Amino acid sequence: MSELPSVRFLRALCAAVLRDEPPADAAARAHAALQELWGGQRSLVLEVQFTGFVARGERLGGVEPAFLRAAGQLIVSRVNRLGFTPEAELADVAALFEIIARLPAELGEGGVMGAVRAAAPSGIYAGTSTGETYKPAPKSAPAVTSVPAGASGNVAAPAYGGAPGNVAAPANGGAPGNVAVPADAADSGNATGGNAGAPAGMPALVDAAEETPADVAPAGMPTLIDAAAPDETRALEDAAPRDSLAPGSAAPAEPRDAAAADVPPPSSAAAEPQTAVPSAPAAPWGSGVGVDLDEDNELSAFEFVEDLGDLTSAPAASPAPSAPSVPAEPARADEPAANDMYHFFRASSSGRADEESAALPGLLHATDNMSRYDDLAESCARNALRHLRAGDHLQAVALLEALAMEAERTDRTRLYRESAAQALRSVGTSENLPHVIDLLQFVGNERDRVLHVLFFLGGEAVTLLENHLFRTPDAEVRRAIFRRLVRGEGGGRPTVARALADSPVRARAILELVTLPEVDPEQSVRWAADAAASADVSVRTDAARAAAQLGGRGGLRILVDLLGDGDRGVRRAALHGLASMQDPASVPFITRFLNDNADDDLQLAAVAALGRTGSADALPPLLAIVNKRSLFGGRKAKSLKLAAIEAIGLTGVPAARDVLASISSGSDTDLASEARRVLASLS
């Protein structure tokens, strides 16, 4: 089976992007495919996605590896849409293919869009993920020049017995802008559309000005070629008053001068009344025909959109009061106008559009018509994307969450839920997801709604969300993401496991989150224990702090294990952790550091830790330090005893007063003075 022209075109485009063949050769194949394609449609619009190319909402050409690689290359260059119309010549296609075949580094600062603007190809439209768009400059209509008598050309002549389509044109008398051309009956070149020539001496008018849009003349109404000069308008009005002609009547023969009066009447055969053939219907507003989209036109401020839907029709312009016109030349069948490429862009109307998008969630929730539901879901997705790009976060979040909630409704059938899910996934593409994640900077309920949408999308959205968890400097955002992770499938276990096995930075970041109240305590203890076994000292230190916050027997067990760590900083963190737990069960483990072989700093840390336990069980070992006799006294022993007196007061238990009172009456003046000071602070 032969391939569709659109697929052949896509294959040539991908060959150019991937440099599988010279861009000029690929352009020749692509242009030939386009010429065949124009026989059945008027434009071709390709959306570039990581999963391939989409045309009219359907995947074009499947998921061949070449198509996927080419799409990925275009996305790297930030191209997300390409459009083609019949106005694209071979040179235009070749210019585009030459640009997209280059690597981003070869394109310069302007990128693909800068190169396309410089080349200015006709009949080709382009858009990027950054919101840039290119549309070709409009082509000006060719001016009509005067045609000498006997020459072939578009000369209006009376249609006496000729083929339908021309109406007699009265002489103008040489008004400015018109050229009177005698139409010899034997000269077939002076008849428009191949009609028989005018009788001898009958002048025909040739418009020397630029053509204007044609109006449809009533039946029997002589049609004059429009001229720009006011004098001509008056002359034509005098020659053929519009009010004096009834539909179906012939034009009265009232020559204005002698030359016209001498014109012999046509033969009886030719004098049969002729009915004016109406011109082709005027192009509807919004079709793009005859519209100059230059920078000064109000339609030049276009916004890139996802679909090619019809624009709302505008009221037709009122015709000129008296100036008649000729029928418009019919468009050639093999050269269709590029009207539908007008819809490649759409003039923004923010006020009404915002009102309509605000009503979409309610309409989507209420409708029971499947076809209508599909349309509303797609409209929600398109408007959400528009609001995302415009920075309207409130509207974007409302539409995205509406789709997510519809996709989860249990009272809807599977078809409805899948329709909403598909519409939501059309927004959750690789290029749009970063914009959705940026919405997390907003606080409150809105942040939870954004997380709801992202976790519903899953896959790449969750992966990007995990990366954002470790990169954002906002602690509140990190906590919000982690809460959603632990509530989701797997309870956040895959994320934590990857973080602990990854860099120390990520492991330490995750340890700040495992102590959140939303996390299962047993799971948190397991994660802290895994971190305590890390090879990185900073991770083990943070694991000690996390274990102390978790508390309980699980936290105590982790801290006791870390008391034997080879790093002094980790042991100190474990001592502080045990002290902060204020658990009497920790006293025996802290007391281990009070022997003579312990590090001086660790001994002082252990003494302070015993005092912060707030347990009466800490008083005996602390009093033992105060009463301990040292063979070699000195500053070290004295400082440790003074620290023990301070720790006795920190316990806060009633028995501490009695212990301090006994020390204050001792023989050591330094210790007695310190005991009295601490005792006074307890009053």
Automatic annotation (TrEMBL):
Residues 238-292, 312-333 are annotated as: Disordered. The lineage of its organism: Bacteria, Pseudomonadati, Gemmatimonadota, environmental samples. It comes from the Bacteria. PROSITE patterns: EF_HAND_1 (PS00018). GO terms for molecular function: oxidoreductase activity. This is Uncharacterized protein. InterPro entries: ARM-like, ARM-type_fold, EF_Hand_1_Ca_BS, PBS_lyase_HEAT. Gene3D superfamilies: Leucine-rich Repeat Variant. Pfam families: HEAT_2. It comes from uncultured Gemmatimonadota bacterium. Residues 260-273, 313-330 have a biased composition (Low complexity).
